[in-house]
Write a structure and sequence with these properties.
heterodimer; A: 62% helix; B: alpha/beta; Rossmann fold; Dimethylsulfoxide Reductase, domain 2; 5 domains; 37 strands; globular
């Protein structure tokens, strides 16, 4: 899908409108926003109080028992890790494959990743028995000369989490620098100070653009192995145990596929919500959602395949170690969860094969939410039956979450929502400059709109001075060819600043 | 704020602002004294010998004392009764001493409430009352009921009462074996419990005798059972059990037959008839046989088969085997003896023994010699006397009732006369240590010191021919303002004056005890038995060794006069069992495994100790056959109302696969109205349903109430796929049993030593590793060659009876937290060693199989690899270490342990004062958020290793005894060094019966199980 074809979609949108709309999403807030922020903050505080109580009293307040030591904590952790996958990974893959339909949606996806990872960290804190000693897990020099155990997947999981959080935050931040600069130039007051700091003195010189491109394209390929390994390592936490249902080599692809499904559904949900609330209907168009929905259906097919494998392996094994947890899922106490998971993850998304469904926003939203719920069930079914249907039948047990667990789940979500609400007002949730890349470039006829000086093309003047947008004029139709900007060779590329990036070559010295 | 607090605050503050003061310190270090007495070295434990008074068996114990506090009770190895072993209840004796609910000073009832008074006041009040009654000539109407006292205390109280002018001093206990004693008197002219020589018997036919569980002297019998099993196949013993509800002993039997209740006597006589008919009897009895034939004519095998519900062929088969195996032994246990027809049943079993010639033989019933102190055994109150007492109380003819450690308000709860009569007694005095069901109605309480704070002596109820008297000495000074009852009676005698004080001139009970023993010493010296030069020397030796016993067993050999006569049967009334009305069930009450008759219900360790078959804790339940339950539409947890003429109880149902369909079983022990916080208002007291201690012959009505009440148990909740009808092994070969043929084929073989060494250290350094010159690091510290020891354990499943003494010993040794009923209901048990129970087959061919599981100390441990912070690590002697201070509580080790031997501390443990004084100072207390597990009692290993290294030698075999192995009554657990091929544990580990739990997981456990050998086991084809 080349960008030329996409331009038609943004008919009537010009550079100034993009800047204005995005900045409006940062500066204009309604009472609904404050209500949502207040509600989520209230739940955050409630969860924090609960956590304090847990730290003083002990983990016994959970509904866990012998031998179900991991319950909604690990379920939540895996879910949040999975939820985080699609954002940055998708952004990086689409960047490298030069699929520029990513441009309007990638920023919110990356925000989702970073914030989901922060939430995952909070899940870990609630999971640990003695969180005040959690620093033991880091390899720091100490008098006891004790290192963490490099054999433990948990250690690698923490490392992976830190690495993925770092990489995705960096990726998010780098991509947002030009936007911060754009916002800086249009706002006043405390925002001015904030964005001045955030934009790191971005002026939009071609040198800065070049450096940004270098950095961006260096991180993007790194993101992919980090993201995949992060999810694989998380899967090895379960897969290295001797628990029958978990001790399986399919776990790494299982987790990554699940994460892809959960992540793409997450991107869709957030895109739909932001689109509605921040009035980005013009930027996040049905075509973007269509593409995301295609991704979702592919992920759904992949996970369905893994669900089959998961049943197949125990079936061909002769002993009943593996079979019992499967039976418990198929017809035991877990069967409502299992079958609703199959329905929501494998059956319902098949409807996305139809273009009508893909373009139907309420349907898409419901399917995506269904997938997220089913993914929670799936993670639950990964964590619990392997533990309680272990090798010794006498140690089997059953688990039912208590109000503590549900409170914690609410806490995790509220933390995410609260942070997202804050971020959405700080970070432009649609990339200003990258949307501009795929807009039809200003034509000669629109020169009277005061196009950008060379090398910038973004932030021009205070917002107040932007002229009202004009509908498509005859002039525009007359001059179809794009404006060539000679000064920056990249600007001449129809694909824009970044998508036309070529790896820098060593300059030949004459 | 110190560094730790600072770090805590900083770490927590990152998420929750203002978090301060996480509670990690649970137990503050407290030293009992600043300047210790001269003969006590702080940090070095002293052991004091005494006697266990948790039941009437009278096992010798030794108590470990550190800095003036009792830490652990173990069996006294010098005591011939228990030979160093102890049961779960014995282990829990510390919780009698340190029970938070002890009565701490004398109390008097004042306007319906108890008021604290001084001892002086209390004694004067009692003496005044007794003096008054005597002046009024009502001294005969003073009754004294006590627990069974078989020592000088009984003699003292008897002397006191006689001189006061009342002969009403009795012992009362629910399980007093009255029928058995009467039957023995009728059969053998022997008044008491003879020695059942289980160890040497080849065939034991048990009619409900729970000798591994609670019957008479369980530790002694368990030890004998260990020997009974531990013989080559051709000489090893077989155990056949007939009972309506599978008991712990029945679970260990080769064959178990569920019989209809109340048919034990008919069954025994049917067998006797067959023996006579088929001339299987002892040849020496040839002349008697025609007479026996006549006497047994009314009891045919057909009748026995029809009544008991066991097929004629099976009974005949068992009878033939029983008669052919010499020596063989038949036992009649509580279900048989505790019926209204109990004496008849017990006599019938005695006749069976007589006919096969087992009376007076090795491996049979051996009649003991009369006790060394003839007059120190208290007389047990009979059922008739109890009824008479109840009527007397009703009529107001009892003016004062003195009670000592007996609780008739609980144990006679169904006897309406007695309960109503208690209210009419104007003056009740309690000498007990606890506010039990009756005591809180008392007018005056003069609290006794517990048995660990008192002097005394005790004649075991059943000895193995070595007549013994076990000495009780105070191992700690009294915790509270209490006095032992002996001292109180002597003081009372002084105040009362006249004949009483003349008869009891001693100042304290110790003087009284010594004076009696001085006479005994004189007697012994007169007989020329070497006893030490002076009495003091003799006495000191007694105190040190824990008592006196004869060096060799001796029995009453005057047998011909003592054998049962054929006309015996006609003299014993045989009441036909009352047939059940249509909907009625037989009520089968059984002594609770931990709580016995309810007297131990105030000890939290025993409350949390699961009943081994139901795995229930902290409550009551009613066991019902699955088929019957299906018919009645009863599921587990449905509350059933069980009602009889005398009362009704409501208890949740438990579906029990091994119970006769028309029988409903309820454990005795719960349902106290007052007995301290651990016992009060918990479960139901089924004794309400019966009107006399003849309890196993009741018809009761059972109805569903519609309510639900969870049975608190360790077993997983059902149904779950695969284990819908009871937890079974799912063909995973967890508890491996073999039959005698297989065992015979294996005999004499020896397997290769076990590969329980950490396997990663067995690997050679890889080529690359060596090339880099790093080879030495691969096998650095913990290499096999450099390892001094590899600790291992062998658990012989053939001997393991499932008595759970190991679990209770572990509670005491390793500071395991108390698990409340709420936590237990959430299935958060804290058992470092636990007992898994699997059902096999369906009624009536049902079996319960036990396997004790502790940390298997794997050589290739899954827990070690996954801990991110090295809290779980492999120690250099093969143990899987756990560093509590390092643990951050990820619970990864718990999840990855396939045996689920690792546990997690969900909360900070709490020990209500003064239970915390029992905590073992050698092992740390685990706070909330830490994983822990069995350590093979690492503190004991370290202690011995350090001692050995001081003496520059290796640890000797058997020098280290983990608490479980030390106490194991049957001797099933052996601990030692697997690396040294000469040790006992290593020899046993090469036994061809060995297997390891889930060996296919390649965890290389160092706990090795030996397969049990039982009859009728399907050979496993692997």
């Amino acid at each position: 899908m080349s960008s030329r074809n996409t331009n038609d979609e943004f008919e009537g949108i010009d550079y100034a409108k993009v800047t204005k709309d995005v900045i409006r999403s940062l500066t204009h807030t309604t009472w609904k926003y404050y209500l949502a922020l207040g509600l989520s903050f209230a739940v955050v505080v409630y969860g924090a109080v609960l956590y304090y109580y847990q730290s003083v009293v002990g983990l016994g307040i959970w509904g866990t028992n012998e031998p179900i030591y991991w319950a909604m904590d690990l379920t939540g952790f895996i879910w949040w890790i999975g939820f985080s996958l699609a954002g940055t990974l998708l952004s990086a893959i689409l960047l490298l494959t030069k699929s520029d339909w990513r441009n309007p949606v990638y920023r919110l996806a990356e925000m989702m990743t970073a914030l989901a990872l922060i939430t995952a960290n909070i899940v870990i804190l609630t999971h640990i028995g003695r969180p005040w000693r959690m620093f033991y897990i880091f390899p720091y020099p100490n008098l006891r000369q004790l290192w963490p155990s490099f054999r433990s997947p948990l250690f690698w999981d923490v490392l992976g989490l830190v690495a993925y959080l770092t990489a995705s935050s960096l990726f998010l931040y780098l991509g947002a620098i030009p936007d911060f600069a754009a916002v800086r130039d249009r706002v006043t007051g405390w925002r001015k100070k904030l964005y001045s700091a955030l934009s790191l003195g971005w002026t939009g010189s071609s040198r800065q653009w070049r450096h940004l491109r270098h950095a961006y394209f260096l991180i993007a390929p790194l993101i992919i192995p980090i993201a995949v390994s992060m999810h694989s390592v998380t899967s090895w936490i379960s897969a290295t145990t001797l628990n029958p249902a978990n001790h399986s080599s399919i776990y790494a692809p299982y987790f990554v596929t699940g994460a892809l499904l959960s992540g793409s559904a997450g991107v869709i949900i957030i895109a739909l919500i932001l689109r509605k609330c921040l009035h980005f209907e013009e930027y996040i168009t049905p075509r973007h959602l269509d593409n995301l929905a295609k991704l979702l259906v592919i992920a759904s097919l992949l996970i369905s395949y893994i669900y089959l494998i998961e049943l197949f392996i125990p079936w061909i094994k002769t002993e009943n170690f593996e079979l019992m947890p499967v039976l418990a899922k198929l017809k035991g106490s877990y069967n409502p969860l299992y079958w609703s998971m199959i329905f929501l993850n494998s059956v319902v998304p098949l409807s996305l094969f139809f273009r009508k469904v893909r373009r139907n926003i309420p349907a898409l939203l419901m399917i995506s939410i269904g997938v997220e719920i089913a993914m929670y069930f799936e993670r639950f079914l990964m964590v619990i039956p392997g533990q309680n249907i272990g090798p010794l039948p006498f140690t089997w047990s059953s688990y039912r979450p208590t109000w503590i667990e549900f409170s914690y789940v609410a806490w995790y979500y509220s933390v995410f929502i609260f942070l997202f609400l804050l971020f959405v007002k700080i970070v432009p949730s649609v990339s200003i400059f990258e949307v501009k890349e795929i807009l039809r470039a200003p034509t000669r006829a629109s020169r009277h709109l005061k196009p950008a000086p060379e090398g910038d093309g973004l932030a021009l003047e205070p917002i107040a001075e932007v002229e009202p947008l004009r509908s498509e004029s005859e002039d525009d139709r007359l001059y179809k060819q794009p404006l060539s900007v000679e000064a920056d060779p990249l600007m001449s590329s129809p694909k824009g600043y970044l998508s036309g990036y070529r790896w820098p070559r060593r300059k030949r010295r004459d | 704020m110190d560094r730790r607090d600072f770090i805590k605050v900083m770490a927590a503050g990152a998420v929750t602002p203002g978090v301060i003061g996480f509670k990690e310190k649970v137990v503050e270090p407290l030293l009992p004294y600043l300047i210790p007495p001269e003969d006590i070295v702080p940090g070095v434990a002293d052991w004091y010998a005494s006697v266990c008074r948790q039941c009437t068996a009278g096992c010798g114990i030794q108590v470990r004392i550190r800095e003036g506090r009792a830490k652990k009770i173990e069996g006294n190895p010098l005591c011939p009764i228990n030979e160093g072993r102890l049961c779960a209840r014995g282990q829990a004796g510390l919780q009698v001493l340190y029970n938070p609910d002890r009565i701490r000073r004398p109390l008097v009832k004042d306007k319906g409430k108890f008021k604290e008074i001084s001892w002086d006041e209390g004694l004067r009040l009692l003496a005044g009352k007794l003096g008054d009654l005597k002046r009024k000539g009502q001294n005969k109407e003073v009754f004294f009921l006590a627990q069974p006292l078989r020592g000088h205390l009984a003699k003292l109280i008897n002397t006191f009462m006689e001189n006061y002018g009342s002969s009403s001093f009795f012992s009362h206990e629910l399980f007093d074996n009255e029928s058995l004693v009467i039957a023995n008197k009728l059969s053998f002219g022997y008044d008491g419990i003879p020695h059942y020589d289980l160890a040497n018997a080849k065939y034991i036919l048990s009619f409900g005798a729970g000798f591994l569980d609670t019957w008479i002297s369980p530790v002694q019998y368990s030890a004998a059972y260990g020997r009974f099993r531990d013989r080559p196949v051709d000489r090893r013993g077989r155990l056949v059990q007939f009972e309506s509800r599978l008991s712990l002993t029945g679970a260990s039997a080769d064959e178990w037959f569920p019989i209809k209740p109340e048919t034990e006597g008919l069954l025994a006589l049917g067998m006797a008839g067959l023996i006579v008919d088929e001339k299987l009897h002892d040849p020496a009895l040839e002349q008697e046989i025609p007479a026996w034939k006549g006497a047994l004519s009314g009891f045919s095998l057909e009748r026995a088969a029809a009544k008991s519900g066991i097929s004629r062929e099976k009974i005949a088969d068992v009878t033939r085997k029983f008669a052919a195996a010499k020596p063989s032994l038949a036992l009649s246990g509580d279900p048989a003896n505790s019926q209204t027809n109990g004496v008849f049943n017990a006599v019938a079993v005695n006749i069976l023994n007589h006919l096969v010639g087992s009376v007076g033989k090795v491996g049979g019933i051996r009649l003991n010699l009369p006790p060394v102190f003839p007059d120190i055994i208290e007389r047990t109150i009979t059922r008739d006397e109890l009824r008479a007492l109840g009527r007397k109380m009703q009529a107001g003819e009892v003016k004062a009732l003195l009670l000592y450690n007996t609780n008739p308000a609980f144990t006679l709860a169904g006897d309406e006369d007695f309960i109503a009569g208690l209210k009419k007694v104007p003056f009740i005095v309690g000498f007990s240590s606890f506010m039990d069901d009756l005591l809180f109605k008392a007018d005056l309480i003069l609290p006794d010191s517990t048995y660990l704070e008192s002097w005394g002596d005790y004649v075991p109820i059943a000895d193995n021919g070595k007549r013994s008297v076990v000495l009780m000495q105070p191992v700690v000074s009294p915790l509270y303002d209490t006095h032992q009852i002996g001292d109180v009676m002597l003081s009372l005698a002084k105040i009362l004056g006249s004949e009483v004080s003349q008869a009891l001139p001693w100042n304290n009970f110790l003087d009284y005890l010594k004076s009696s023993w001085r006479d005994f010493h004189r007697d012994l010296s007169g007989k020329g038995v070497a006893t030490g030069a002076s009495f003091e020397e003799f006495w000191n030796n007694l105190v040190k060794t824990g008592g006196w016993s004869e060096s060799a067993p001796a029995f009453d050999e005057n047998l011909p006069a003592r054998r049962p006569k054929p006309d015996l049967l006609s003299t014993v009334p045989n009441k036909e069992p009352r047939p059940l009305a249509g909907e009625e069930f037989h009520l089968h009450l059984y002594p609770s495994h931990g709580l016995y008759d309810g007297g131990n219900a105030n000890q939290p360790w025993l409350q949390q100790l699961p009943e081994p078959l139901v795995t229930g804790t902290w409550g009551s339940w009613a066991e019902i056959n699955p088929e019957t339950a299906r018919e009645l539409g009863v599921a587990e947890g449905d509350v059933l109302k069980i009602s009889s003429e005398t009362g009704s109880i409501e208890v949740p149902a438990y579906i029990f696969p091994a119970i006769e369909p028309k029988t409903i079983a309820v454990p005795i022990g719960q349902g106290h109205t007052s007995f301290g916080s651990y016992a009060k208002n918990r479960g139901a007291n089924p004794i309400k349903l019966i009107d006399s201690p003849a309890w196993a012959s009741m018809g009761v009505e059972v109805a569903k109430t519609g309510a639900k009440n969870k049975v608190i148990k360790i077993e997983p909740d059902l149904p779950q796929p695969g284990i819908e009808n009871g937890v079974n092994e799912l063909d995973r070969h967890l508890v491996q049993w073999i039959n005698h043929e297989e065992a015979a084929a294996l005999e004499g073989k020896e397997l290769e030593p076990i590969k329980a060494l950490p396997s990663r250290n067995l690997k050679k350094p890889s080529a690359l590793w060596s090339l880099l010159g790093l080879g030495k690091y691969r096998s650095a510290k913990t290499s096999v060659r450099k390892m001094d020891y590899r600790w291992g354990m062998v658990i012989d499943m053939d001997k393991c009876s499932g008595c759970q003494a190991c679990m209770a010993a572990c509670y005491a040794e390793n500071n395991l937290p108390l698990v409340s009923d709420v936590e237990m209901a959430r299935r958060r048990h804290k058992n470092w060693i636990r007992l898994d129970r699997y059902w096999e087959g369906e009624y009536p061919e049902v079996r319960a199989k036990f396997i004790p599981v502790n940390c298997l100390q794997c050589g290739n441990a899954p827990c070690e690899a996954v801990c991110p912070v090295y809290a779980a690590y492999g120690a250099s002697d093969g143990l899987n270490g756990q560093v509590y201070q390092r643990c951050i509580g990820t619970r990864y080790c718990n999840v990855n342990c396939p045996y689920r031997a690792r546990l997690f501390n969900w909360f900070n443990p709490e020990w209500p004062e003064p239970l915390d004084q029992q905590l073992n100072p050698d092992i740390s207390v685990r706070t909330s958020g830490i994983a822990d597990k069995c350590t093979f009692c690492v503190q004991r290993i370290r202690e011995v290793k350090e001692k050995a290294s001081d003496e520059e030698r290796k640890v000797r075999d058997g020098e280290i005894q983990p608490a479980c192995a030390q106490t194991c009554p049957t001797g099933a657990i052996t601990f030692g060094d697997l690396k040294d091929l000469t040790t006992k544990v290593s020899q046993l580990s090469r036994n061809p019966r060995r297997y390891r739990l889930l060996e296919e997981l390649n965890t290389e456990p160092a706990v090795i199980y030996l397969k049990a050998v039982r009859e009728n086991v399907e050979p496993k084809h692997e």
